[in-house]
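Model it.
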Amino acid sequence: MTVRMAKLTDIKNIYDLICDMENTKFDYEKFEKVFKKYLEDDRFFCFV
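Modeled.
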């Protein structure tokens, strides 16, 4: 298994995983907007 920092190209897979874990569908456009914001923030780390 390899762990790395998340990239913009990971958004769809991360979105699908979270929706599956929560057993619901979130608004993808809102999720994408927030996730991009976090990826640009040096205080936030997302590993996949």
